[in-house]
Amino acid sequence: MKNKKEEKEKKYRSWAVQLSYYYETHDNEGRKKSDITETEWKASIRRRIEKMISDKDCAAYCFHDKDTLSDGMPKGLHCHILLMFANARYQRAIMKALSITREENCEPVRAKSSVARYLTHRTSQAMDDGKYPYNADEVICINCEYRELIKQTSEKKQELIDIDEFIGECSQDIRAGKYWEDVRDLLKQNFGISKGEKLWKKYRKDFEIDFHEYLSIKAREYSKYGRPLVTIFITANESGVGKSQLAKAISYHITDRVHFVPAKGKGKTFDFAGLYKGELVSVFNEVGGSEFGNKAFNEIFDPYQYSAINSRGKDKHWLALYAILTTTESREQFIMNAMPCIDERYQNRALKRQEINRRLPYEIICTGLGDNKAQYELRKLCDEKTMETVGTVYCNDVRDMEKMTKTALNALIMLGLKENDQTEEDYDFLEEKITYTED
Q1: What global pTM score does this model have?
Q2: pLDDT (tens digit, 9 = 90+) per residue, 364-423?
Q3: pLDDT score of 416
């Protein structure tokens, strides 16, 4: 079983690693903690690498002991390593195997040839910086040839190779769930603004296709195994109590990319999925129970089953795992407005009501306290019929987004939708709210 952090990480086949003799033999205060010699340390590095490399994997590494710092002082013995695996590995697995403590010393590789050249300081930048040139025979290789890794090609050809490797890795990441438009900044970071922008214009259509492929794959997965959709219902019968601000703050605690559903236009069909681009959270501001129609509402907000959404006459995948609804209707009003209009027997209407009720498992009731202060009663569906109050959070100024953000965090924790990993500062804020309510 993978832990939660590992599940969020991406796997990569190639990694660039740096290990330092000084940092492995001294603590954070600079005190020596090991008497291992440099020769013994080199041997330990070899053992660590060999232990994690199979017959199908490759590695190339070089010990640097002649580097200097910018002030001319010796840098100290360290080792640069290029790891190339047949199967992708998690960063945490690499760090554990090589006893690496800092993530910046273990980074995924997109252009292997450039990293290989740096082992001997053969990159253009390293030579321009006057770094000491190590000999090719100082590089230790496992299941590979160093000269093959750094085959001399023209600068233009090498750039094309690097670009091709980078584009391929980006496509792989997008098909695994990375948002395709984020690649634009990565291209500019790696190849410069001008070149990166040209590459974006050339490949963005391909990246978009990759992303739609990811959405289709994810949709098939949800259709087969179900989608654990969480719906949060935020209601207030007055204005100025911060329900929209609270919905926004809750959303950004969950993810950096949020889908804000445009309001229904007069005389227009409510097409909420029209602008959806794979976001994890969708926020429906100021909606009513009659907005969707009974059948559509039950299909859209089913917490177990997934089906595509009809958008502008065609089906579109809506893959959000969180839906946040804000409304001026009470829960009971919303449910009644979402009920089918036909006159049915009481038993059938009770069943229909229960269907809607279980699709709204979390509720926040907003109440103004004057002077832009508000309280938020938090309720959960403890069975398929009964709502239970689990607590109340407060905000001293609903116009202050920083305060609202902390209020939203407390709400998510009390509802059981986020782990309690608050800092001491967050608890001070919570105490402030408790003090305020006692007054």
Answers
A1: 0.63
A2: 999 999 999 999 999 999 877 789 999 999 999 999 999 999 999 999 999 999 887 654
A3: 93
CB 364 within 8 A of CB 235: yes
Measured in degrees and rounded to the nearest 5, phi and psi for residue 356 equal -70, -45
Tell me, rounded to whole angstroms, the distance of Cα 42 from its chain centroid.
37
Tell which residue, 238, 49, 253, has the closest CA to residue 140.
Answer: 49
**Beta-strand pair 78-89/12-20:** antiparallel
Which residues make beta-bridge pairs with 235? 327, 365
Residue 155 phi/psi, 5-degree rounding, is -60, -40
| Helix 183-191 vs helix 193-225: crossing angle, to nearest 10 | 150
- Residue 103 DSSP SS3: helix
Alpha-carbon span 317 to 274, nearest angstrom: 10
Q: What span, in angstroms and rounded, lies between the C-alpha atoms of 404 and 396?
A: 9
Burial 76-96 (b: 16+ CB within 10 A, else e): ebbbbbbbbbeeebbbbebbe
What integer is the mean pLDDT of 335-354?
78
d(CA 172, CA 211): 10
Length of the chain: 439
Give the number of other CB atoms < 10 A from CB of residue 146.
19
